[in-house]
Design a protein that fits this description.
The chain has 317 residues and is of the alpha/beta class. The protein is built from 11 helices and 10 strands. It has a single domain, classed as Alpha-Beta Barrel (TIM Barrel), CATH 3.20.20.220. The strands form 2 sheets. An 8-stranded parallel barrel has the order 1-2-5-6-7-8-9-10, surrounded by 6 helices. Helix 2 runs parallel beside helix 11 and helix 5 packs parallel to helix 6.
Length: 317
């Protein structure tokens, strides 16, 4: 079932969550156990993230450094199919422009379509570890709006090879990311809103936000989207804080601000258990407030904290 249909037919706010594929060589069983734990709360759908290759430098025998790229988290397509058919829950497969040409993206979409995965979250992707800025590959895309447009064309039966015989139309629902506090690379909020509208105009059917810790940021973002003529559903994405390290890494990585009250609570905490309790309580309060203000649902970034998210969902839904 497509996400847009799930949203349109929902009688109550939806619970959804995101999973990260295990590192290469890791055991998928832990991830499946996390899905099993959270499936008790009847998630409307599950997102599976995608990660491009990372740059690694190794020293050669002659003392020079050799640059190579490696994939550390493979398996988005296979894992999406495994989860969808094991748990009978729709899966949203993330697809990123980073590291892939238009031809490779089309191949991935064909495979997802073949496997019955109808939902895609189209993303540009972050620069790989070791690189300061995003660079598309030869024949690739600089912006996720181009990927959204490619998916829309496939839904019309238009492939990159316009001579393809008996081309079948795909049936994808496409979501995109929105940034309530603006994308880290955008010069200002106005420009970022223009880029978001371009993604919607290219065919995106819903938006899921980057994490935030102040709900007023989300409410303002939704108002600004509506003023810009963006009418698609906007799903808030949130995450429970799990360590003091998050105070440094999250703002640096995601261009997100922490409210003063939350920073004060976390900095005064002495034990990890206290920090986790503060993070869980804050996230619970956020989710309850979002639902009370009419959000279509709440999307949780689990990042290995399925047990914490389960405790929050039990209180909220």
């Amino acid at each position: 079932m497509q996400v847009i249909d799930i949203l349109n037919e929902a009688k109550k706010p939806l619970f959804t969550f995101e999973l990260v594929p295990p590192l290469k060589g890791g055991n998928v069983q832990t991830l499946l156990d996390n899905v099993r734990m959270l499936s008790e709360f009847e998630p409307a759908y599950i997102n599976v993230t995608n990660h491009q290759q990372e740059v690694v430098y190794t020293e050669r025998e002659d003392g020079l450094l050799e640059r190579r790229t490696v994939h550390k988290r493979p398996g988005t397509v296979a894992l999406s199919a495994l989860i969808q058919y094991t748990f009978q829950i729709p899966v949203v497969a993330h697809l990123i422009c980073g590291g892939m040409s238009a031809d490779q993206l089309e191949d991935a979409l064909v495979e997802l379509n073949f496997l019955g995965i109808e939902n895609i979250l189209a993303l540009r992707g972050d620069p790989p570890a070791g690189e300061k800025r995003f660079m598309s590959v030869n024949g690739g895309y600089d912006h996720s709006s181009d990927l959204v447009a490619q998916i829309a064309r496939l839904n019309e039966g238009k492939y990159l090879d316009d001579q393809l015989q008996n081309a079948q139309k795909t049936h994808f629902c496409t979501g995109v990311a929105g940034y309530p506090e603006k994308h880290a690379e955008a010069p200002n909020l106005s420009y970022d809103m223009q880029m978001l509208k371009k993604k919607v105009d290219s065919g995106a059917q819903y938006i899921v936000t980057q994490m935030f810790f102040n709900n007023e940021v989300y409410y303002r973002f939704v108002d600004d989207c509506r003023k810009a003529g963006i009418t698609v559903p906007i799903i808030p994405g949130i995450k429970p804080i799990g360590s003091k390290r998050d105070l440094a890494t999250i703002p640096q990585t995601f261009h997100v601000d922490f409210p003063d009250e939350l920073v004060d609570l976390l900095t005064r905490a002495k034990k990890l258990s206290e920090i986790k309790e503060i993070g869980s309580d804050w996230c619970t309060r956020q989710a309850k407030d979002l639902i009370a203000h009419g959000a279509p649902g709440v999307h949780f970034y689990t990042l290995g904290k399925a047990d914490t998210v389960a405790g929050i969902v039990k209180q909220v839904f």
